[in-house]
Structure formats: C-alpha cells, structure tokens
Amino acid sequence: MNHPLSLYNTLTRTKQPFTPLESPLVGLYVCGPTVYGHAHLGHARPYITFDVLRRYMQYLGYKVRYVRNITDVGHLQNDADDGEDKIEKYAKAHQLEPMEVVQQYTNSFHLDMASLNILPPDIEPRASGHIIEQIEMIQEILDNGLAYESNGSVYFDVPAYNKDHRYGKLSGRVIEDLLNNTRELDGQEEKRSPLDFALWKKASASHIMRWNSPWSEGFPGWHLECSAMSRKYLGKQFDIHGGGLDLMFPHHECEIAQSQASHNHTDAARFWMHNNLITINGKKMGKSLNNFITLGELFTGSHEVLQQAYSPMTVRFFILQAHYRSTLDFSNEGLQAARKGYLKVMNGLRILDQLQYPTGTAAVDAKADEEIQKLTSELFVPLNDDLNTAKSIAALFNLLKKINSMHTGGFKLEILSEETFEQMRQQYRTLALDVLGLKIEQTTDALTLLEVVLGFYKEAKETKDYAKVDAIRAQLKGQGIVIKDMKSGIDWAYEE
RNA sequence: GGUAACGUGGCCGAGUGGCUAGGCAGAGCUCUGCAAAAGCUCGUACAGCGGUUCGAAUCCGCUCGUUACCUCCA
Predict the structure, then answer these.
(1) Which of A80, A112, A148, A251 is the most exposed place for a label (fewest CB within 10 A)?
(2) CA–C1' A282–B55 (A)
(3) Both A181 and A39 in a single domain?
(4) CA A391 → C1' B18, Å?
(5) What is the ipTM of this complex?
(6) Nucleotides of chain B within 7 Å of a protein C-beta?
(7) How far apart are CA A202 and CA A83, in angstroms?
(8) Model pLDDT for residues A4-41, shown as the tens digit of each residue
C-alpha cells in the first residue's frame, strides 16, 4: 500500500511518511481515561482526533487495531499523600467500592463517547485486569538491572538507564537539567534518585486496592499499565502511540524507558502523536485547575459559563475545525459558529440525497466538469498532511457552495458528467460521515411536530374540510398514530 | 529557573517565501407574497522593531505579550 499520508512524529519533531510495520495492519494505542470523574471537553479532543485518524486509515484500506485503555488503578494523588490513590480517595468519601466508582465513570465515559460518534476501540483493556502482565514486566526490568527494590516498592533506575539510553528523548529533556530543577517533594527517601519513578508501590494499611506481588502487597506504578497493555495487544513494537500533550512528560517518557528496559525495543511505538490542549480563557482546561466543563454539562447547557447547550456533533465539529496540534480556545462564540457550520454541512448532505442526475443526454461542459472534479479531489488531500481536518472541512465548504447552487438551479446538473456527479456525491458523503464521523442529529421533536399537525386537523374540522381531515388521519395512521376526537378535545394515541 | 510552543481581519481558525483558506458575525445585491435558505460581492488581517531577499504573515535577530511541560492531568 502506498499512501502519501504523513504524520507529525513527536519523537523526531518532523512530519514523516507513514508506513506500517506490517502493511496493511496498523497498531494504534491511545492513552485512555483515568475513571474517577466525568469526561470533560478536554478529554473529547484526543478521542475525536484519534477516532478520525483511525477512520481515515480504514478509508485508506488499512486494517487498524485500535487499543485504548481504561486506567482504574494507581495514579497517586501526590507523592506526599502516603500512597492513597485517587480512585480510593474518592471512594471513601462516597462510601462506595472503588470498582463501583470505576464502573460508574466508565459507563459515563462510554455514553459520552457514543454521543460524540466516536467508534469504540477494538480492545479496551483495564489496568486492573492486567496486574500479572505488569508484574512480569517489572521482573524483566529488575532482571536487566534497571530497577531496584526498596522497602517493598520497586523503582525504575533512571540514571542507570540513562547510561546507555536517553531518558528524555521524547520530550527533549536532558537528565542533568531535570536533576538541577527537581522540586523538593516528600516521600522520596526510598528512591536513589529523585528522577526514579515507581514500578510497584507497597500499599499502606489503609489502601484498599491492592494485589500480591513478589515484593509486597501493593499496586502497580502509574506509567506501567500502558507499557504492559500495548505490548500485550499490539506487540513489543507497534505503529502509533497517541495521547494528550500533557502526557508527553513524564508519562510517555516513562513508557518508552519501561519498554526499552524490559524488552529492549528502542521505541515501542514508531510514531508518537500528541494532540494539543483545549484552553478556556487562554488557560489549559484541566482537572488540576478545576476550570473544566464536562461533556454532560456541555450537552445540557448546565454550567454557568455556557450560554446554551451544545450538541455532541457541534462539539465534534468545533474540535475538528482546528488542527489537532494547535491549542483550541473554548468560547460560546466559537461553539455557536461551529453549530451553524455543522448544520450547513448536514443540509448539504440532505440536498445531495435529493439531487437526481437528469436522464437523457446533454452536452457536458468540460470546464465546469473539471471545476467540480478539482473541488472533489481536494477533499481528502489535507488529511494526508498530518490529518489537517480544518483544511478538509474548508474544502468541504467550497464544494458545498456548488452543491447548493445545483440545488437552487444556478448550476445545471446536466453540464456535469454522471461520473463526476457521482464522485462528488460519494466523496462528500464519505468525508463528512465516514471519515470526519459527523452524523445527522435529531433536532426536531416528533411530539411537538404532532401538535402542529393536530392544529391543522382541528382547523380542518372547524371549516368542515373533511377531505383534509381524512387525509391527515390517514397520514398519521401510517405513522402508527390514531387521532381521537373527544368531547373534551382532540387527543391522539399510539395505534394498538 | 530549565525546556518547548504560540501571537493571523469583529470572533474562531488554516496557511510557512510570490498564487482566494474556510466558518461565524457585519454590509450590499440577486431570488422572494412575507420570511428563510441559497448564491454573488465587500472589508484589503498577519504583535512591534530591525535584517536577509527582486519579493516575507511565512526565514533570521531583538523586544513585548500569552501558554504548556518540569507534580496528577486528554
């Protein structure tokens, strides 16, 4: 397969032509959520971005295996917190089982993802279901002399690793600089170097989530699950690893070190991709700043900064109108503009479905035909340049102008060849629906529409226009609705 | 403090040496019973100051401003 798809690789800081290790197979791993809260707007970005990448690769003919994990263990609140993890902390406050919390937010996450029309991953492994694999990986790193045990916990030996490898190659960090700028944090006594990170943590007495291991009863370190699970399902080396920019250091850096130290592959993933962050008032939207808007709040408009509710497809379109490596600032104006743009694209879809290529022969206008061919051909090209969805959408609008003209009659369909017309129709639909993953949202409420129809029905009865009365009755019956004329007024019921 | 980015018209947001980005908002026109939709036209934008060049939003330098990572975070 020879596609001109180029992707920006954080590892090399350049755009590189993408070729899979074993075409047409593509292994794609994306860091999934830590399920201790509802997903917010910031979470939507990587999952939408990599959903489009996956969809586009499938469109190109690749067979993609997409793995996105659920992190439900580990992730310390902070180093001074005596080993109490976030999920546990929340669970105690609410008197719930930790796994109950995990399940609740996993369900919520899945609902949000489905609303955004994000295709489910092929494999969605949970960290808590892969403790054995993680323990095995720790043992390998210990055997290779790049980790050490300390008081029941196991730490990755960053300085030892850095002798033969470069810790910091992904994020552009230099170990000496890191050492010079280490913050003074508590709970570091067990570590030989402040840069060392935990592979296994011994659980404190109060820690509920705990597993047996050769070293202590405890829980795995907070970078290990991705290394273990990507390896299990995609192999020691695979094609693409994605995630948010804020995971680059230390999370992804540690993943690289763990993979190298355990199974000696220089780069577990050949391409590392990072989406930029969503900002609000110029500041990163994130849990730590407590300035986030959850997807649920966005969809219902129930947050004080929201002037209105924004539908899932509005959110999706908003995100796709910016390139994934640029920051994107949240604003009501931006979302409102996205909403209109999205609806415009959907109206185009409706028009395309209605357009009929005229039967009978007419002279094809070569110039017009060529113009439409050109606009059509520009639809997918930007995606090859590091997934430039913003530019593809612009191309979609350029073609849409012509489609609208065809609809209103300014542009005569018969001056196009049938082939050009079908190409245009098919490509527009494929880009909008299959690759960008937009879908038509139900914007009308059937019951409200029914009230409108019943209004006309009442009017027809009053003017004794029985032909119309009968027609309305018949039409509604066809929809499974029966009208009931009662003394008290007009009512309706589902036909039994 | 270290490292890495960014600063584009009223708003959002592509573009990286010469060729219309696009969307939203605004103005005008066409169409129209009214309206809407749609189409066409318009504003002549690239933080500031220097430099390189026939030519810079795009390359280089400086200044100003903003942000991210360095600690859990998509």
Answers:
(1) A80
(2) 36
(3) yes
(4) 22
(5) 0.94
(6) 1-6, 11-16, 21-25, 37-40, 66-74
(7) 8
(8) 899 999 998 889 999 999 999 999 999 999 998 899 99
